[in-house]
Amino acid sequence: MKVIDYINQAKDTILSYEVLPPLKGKNINSLFQHLDPLMEFKPSFINVTYHRSEHVSKQQQDGSVERVEVRKRPGTVGICAAIMNHYQVDAVPHLICGGFTKRETEDALIDLNFLGIDNVLVLRGDAAKGDSEFVPMPNGNNYAIDLLRQADRLNKGLYLEEDILDGFKTNFCLGVAGYPEKHFEATSLEEDLGHLKAKVDAGAEYIVTQMFFDNAKYFDFVDRCRAAGIMVPIVPGLKPLTNKKQLSAIPRIFNVELPQDLVNAMNNSTTDEGCEKVGEEWLTYQSKELKKAGVPVLHYYTLGKPKIVYNAVSQVF
Predict the structure, then answer these.
(1) Is the whole-model pTM more than 0.85?
(2) Residue 19 pLDDT > 90, yes or no?
């Protein structure tokens, strides 16, 4: 079932999660153990992130150093199929530009369609590790809107091979990312909203936001989107803070501001357990306020801390 149909048919706020594929060498049971408690609340869908390959230096027997390409978290497509089979819930794979040629993208979309996956979250993805800026693959998509257009063309039965006539039309519901505090590469919120509107005009049916910790940022973002003519559902993405290191890391990496009350409460905590409790209480507060405001979905970035998400969700749903 499509994400947009879940949203349109719901009488109240629905629930979704986002998970990471296990590290290479780990069994999928680690992911099931992560999700098992959270399934009590019957999420409508589960997002599965995609991670591009990176290059690492490995010393060879002759003493030389060779750059080797590795993918530390493979298996997004297979994990989506496993989640759907194991839990009978829809999975939403992320699809990124980085590390994919257009032909590989088309093949991935065909595989997803064969598996009965109805939804794709389309992202540009991060720059390769060690690179200062994003560089697309040769014959790859440069921006999320290019990837979105390719997926939308496949929905229309248009394949890269021009000799494929009357090609099967896929039927993906396409989502994209939005940034309440703007993407770090954008020069202004207005510029960033222009890019977002272009993605919606190109076929995106819903938006999932970057994490934020001040609900006012989300509400202002929605207002700005509506004023710009962006009328699709805007799903708030929520992540719990869990330790003091994140007070500096998250604003630096994700270009988000942390409310001073949250920072003070974290700094006043003297134990790891105390920090996690602060994060849980803040996540619960955000969730309750957003649900009361009638947001379409509460989307939780679980990312290794399912217990905190469980405790917060149990107080909201």
Answers:
(1) yes
(2) yes
